[in-house]
Amino acid sequence: MAEDSRITTFLTRNKIFAQNYKPMPLISQLIEQARANPPAHPAMAISTDLPIPASSNIKLTPIKVSCMDPRVSREAFFGLQPMEATVITNAGGRAADAMRSVYLLDALNPIGTVVVVHHTDCGMTYVSAEGLSKRLEDKVPEKKGEIEGMEWGEFTEWAHLRPLGSEMLHVLMLDIRSLEQSVRDDVEIVKSSPYLSKDLKVLGFVYDIAHGTVEEVKA
């Protein structure tokens, strides 16, 4: 049994969850469904190493790239239902960090839309690349050379110094316009990828954690 009381709570909740759980379809079942449906358009044909014929057709999958912040319930603020969309999370909801997963998902199941969501009061607005690298170097100084080349995906253009406790920390203060620009930057990363369809729809949003609202960011 896990020593952390929070993990124990999670496991207890899982037992309750499992009592009325409705199983999700297996990959083998999805493959059979794909085989049973003729393609609506050649662009929707699957090309993978899975045993699915190239003439098969399955529904285009929407993908949402969002922050891993535990205050941001991605399923809740869009009201997502099971299997309605694939959610990719990382620190800051940055597109560059998510592209490996986007490519993989698109290869397995054609993507219909990619939605990029950044949110107010994001933890990545309170850190700098220098500060993060310094903390990691303190832990493993022998890896300093590797750490110096790491990219953190922080919002570096809006940095300011401000006191926090007894220290002066390098804190990134983003207003809503700055967040909107970071969303536009990430939307462009997805749109400009040579590995994705030029017809792919890419949308960007800012989620306000104070009010629970989502506003679209126009190009």
Please tell me about this protein's structure.
With 219 residues, the chain is an alpha/beta fold. It has 7 helices and 7 strands, in the order ααβαβαβααββαββ. The strands form 2 sheets. Strands 2-1-3-6-7 form a 5-stranded mixed beta sheet, covered by helices on one side. A two-stranded antiparallel ribbon has the order 4-5. Helix 3 links the parallel strand 1 and strand 2 (86-90). The longest helix has 16 residues, at 176-191. The radius of gyration is 21 Å and the shape is globular. Residues 41-58 and 156-176 have low confidence and may be disordered.
Number of strands: 7
Broad structural category: alpha/beta
Shape: globular
Q: What percent of residues adopt helix (DSSP H or I)?
A: 25-40%
In whole angstroms, the N-to-C terminal distance is 50 Å
Subunit organisation of the chains: single chain
Low-confidence stretches: 41-58, 156-176
| Elements, N to C (H/E) | HHEHEHEHHEEHEE
Averaged pLDDT: 77
Q: What does the main sheet amount to?
A: 5 strands, mixed
User: What Rg is obtained from the alpha carbons, in whole angstroms?
Assistant: 21 Å
Percentage of residues in DSSP E strands: 15-25%
Q: Which sequence of strands runs across the widest sheet?
A: 2-1-3-6-7
Determine the number of helices (DSSP H or I, runs of at least 4 residues): 7
